[in-house]
Design a protein that fits this description.
- The protein is of the alpha+beta class.
- It folds into 2 domains: 144 residues, Fructose-1,6-Bisphosphatase, Chain A, domain 1; 96 residues, 3-Layer(aba) Sandwich (D-Maltodextrin-Binding Protein, domain 2).
- The chain has 7 helices and 16 strands.
- The strands form 5 sheets. A 7-stranded mixed β-sheet has the order 3-4-5-6-7-8-9. The chain has a 3-stranded antiparallel β-sheet with strand order 12-16-14, with helices on one face. The protein has a two-stranded antiparallel ribbon with strand order 1-2.
């Protein structure tokens, strides 16, 4: 399959999994805690099942690394390319009845994101990006190209984590920058706001996992933005020990 076909596959599967999540939401669910005390629901597991089977069938040569399988102890050997799947990013928001949660499917090669798809189940919006070819947003009216924007004269629109809204590091980081607005929200949808030119900066303090960021980084960078490791200033890379990210910064066009 070509990369364009792989992106189409990822976008279609993200949308299909989003439908599964909304079915679980409609019928009701119980929230459990994993060993790391993070929440998990039937929606996480059923969404993941709707993704990983078709991915493995369509691309048997590309390993699939999915959050809930990893949590259950399933490990994958390192390979030049792999899919990174977060079947329900923003489980905290989902379990609280909020709307900012999403499905993330990213493809990484040689430690670098190549393409990604994100779907917001509540709205049905799907974002996709293939680095070198551009990024798009798909809704009921069709598909349109999106692009990160240059910072407007009135200042930066900053998106920040709702769960970490009281992080003491955010204020000093933003000090001295022209800030028009700070919006707190959950999940990788913050990246999408940057990719489509609705926000300019997303600073993340604290650990995330590679499946939290792979799809989103591909979309942002395909749209002309950048995601960098705050410690090194280098592009956020993949295949790290434990697949753990450090602090990072997502930004639109300079």
């Amino acid at each position: 399959m070509t990369d364009t076909e792989l992106l189409d596959l990822a976008m279609d599967l993200a949308a299909r999994a989003a439908g599964v999540i909304m079915q679980v939401r409609s019928r009701g669910f119980i929230t459990h805690s994993k060993d790391d005390l993070s929440p998990v629901t039937a929606a996480d597991h059923e969404s993941e099942a709707a993704i990983v089977g078709p991915l493995r069938a369509a691309t048997p040569d590309i390993p699939v690394i999915a959050e809930e399988e990893v949590a259950a102890g399933l490990t994958q050997v390192d390979a030049p390319a792999c899919w990174l799947v977060d079947p329900l990013d923003g489980t905290r928001e989902f379990s609280k009845g909020l709307d900012d949660f999403c499905v993330c499917i990213g493809l990484v090669r040689h430690g670098k994101p190549v393409l990604g798809a994100i779907c917001a189940p509540v709205t049905g919006l799907v974002w996709g990006g293939l680095i070198g070819s551009g990024a798009v947003r798909r809704d009921a009216g069709g598909t349109r190209a999106i692009r990160a924007r240059a910072v407007p004269a009135e200042g930066l629109v900053v998106v920040a984590s709702r769960h970490h809204a009281d992080d003491a590091r955010l204020g000093p980081f933003l000090a001295g920058r022209p800030i028009a607005q700070v919006i707190n929200m959950g999940s990788a949808l913050k990246f999408c706001r940057v990719a489509e030119g609705e926000a300019d900066l997303y600073p993340r303090f604290g650990p995330t996992m590679e499946w939290d960021t792979a799809a989103a980084q591909a979309i942002v960078e395909a749209a002309g933005g950048v995601v960098t490791d705050m410690a090194t200033g280098m592009r956020l890379a993949y295949g790290k020990p434990g697949r753990l990210n450090g602090d990072f910064l997502c930004s639109g066009r300079e």
